[in-house]
Amino acid sequence: MKLRTTLLASAVSLLPVAGMAADMTIGFSQIGSESGWRAAETTVTKQEAESRGIDLKFADAQQKQENQIKALRSFIAQGVDAILLAPVVATGWDQVLEEAQDAEIPVVLLDRTVDAADDLYLTAVTSDLVHEGSVAGQWLVDEVAGEDCRIVELQGTTGSSPAIDRKTGFENAISGHDNLEIVRSQTGDFTRSQGKVVMESFLKAEGGENICALYAHNDDMAVGAIQAIKEAGLNPGEDILIVAIDAVPDAHLAIAQGEMNATIELTPNMAGPALDALEAYFADGTMPPKWIQTESKLYTADDDNQAVYEMKKDLGY
Ligand code: GZL
C-alpha cells in the first residue's frame, strides 16, 4: 500500500496520516552477511518490522554498493513508504538518495553513515564509531601501562564509515603515548576469513614475538586472527593482546576462555529506533534528530562473559 497515494488523494497536505505502521511497506537494503553482527542486525530488523505489522522488502547486496543502488531504485519503483539503508561505503549515494527524495520516500540510515547532504535522509541510527575506536585505544593504553607495544590493525571495509571512524578514534586515543605504535594496518573487510588471512601475513612479516597487540575493527576479524595466532604457536590474549568491537557471542566466549581481552558492544537493534522515528514521522510529521545514537559498552575479562555469551548466543548472530 503506497502511503503517498493516500496522502495525494487527500490533497490536504503531505503530512502522513496517523496509524500508518499497520500497512507500511518498507524497503531494507542490507549490506550482506559478512559478520555475525550483521546477521543479528538482519534478524532483529525483520523481528522489529513483523512486530509492527510492517511489510519489509529485504535486499541483500552481498557487500556491493551497485547492488544497494539497484535495490533502492527498485524500492522507489515499487512505491514503498520508506527505505532503510545500511550503506556499505560512505560515498556515491547522492544520485539515488535524490531520486528517493524526488519520490518523497524517506530514507533512514542504519549503522553506517554517508558523505551526503543530510537533507537526503531522514535520520541515521548509528553508534558513535569514533568513540568506539577511542574506547579500544584507551583500553590498550591502560592495559600496557607504559610498556612498549607494537600494534597490528585489521581495518573494516575500505571506505566504510566504521573503518574510517574506528581508525580515527583509536589513533586519537593512543596519540601522545609514544610506547604504542601501529606497525601494520590492512583491511580484513569485516570477515573472519580475511581477518585470518591478513593476520597470517602480519605474523609472517613482523614475527609473532614482535607483535604486542591486535586492534580489529570488528570481532569477526579478531576471531579469524585468533585462529591464525594459534596456528603460529602463540597464545592469543596473552602473547598478543586482542581488542575489537561488536561484542558478538563468540567474542564473549573468547574473552571467557582468555583468548581475547576486550570488545565494545554494538547493538544489532538499529531498526527499533529507526522504525519508531518513521512511525512518528508518518503519524504527525515529527522530524527526528539527524543522528539517533546507540550506546557502546566495553566488556573485558572483569565481566561475566560466559553469562553474556549464554544470553546472546540465540539472538540471531
Ligand atoms: C558498524 C557496522 C559494522 C560491524 C561489522 O556499525 O557497520 O559492519 O561492526 C559489520 O561487524 O560488518
Structural write-up:
- It is built from eleven helices and twelve strands.
- It is α/β, with parallel strands linked by helices and 317 residues long.
- It has two domains: 2-127 and 267-286, Response regulator (Rossmann fold, 3-Layer(aba) Sandwich); 129-266 and 300-314, Rossmann fold (3-Layer(aba) Sandwich), CATH 3.40.50.
- The longest helix has 16 residues, at 36-51.
- The two termini are 32 Å apart.
- It is found in: Cell envelope.
- Keywords: Signal.
- Residues 1-21 form the signal peptide.
Radius of gyration: 21 Å
The string of secondary-structure elements, in order, is HEHEHEHEEHEHEHEHEHEHEEH
**Distinct ligands, ions and cofactors found in the model:** beta-D-galactofuranose
Structural class: alpha/beta
CATH secondary-structure class of the largest domain: Alpha Beta
- Overall mean pLDDT: 94
How far from one another are the termini?
Answer: 32 Å
Structural domain tally: 2
Mind telling me which CATH architecture of the largest domain this is? 3-Layer(aba) Sandwich
Please identify the oligomeric state.
single chain
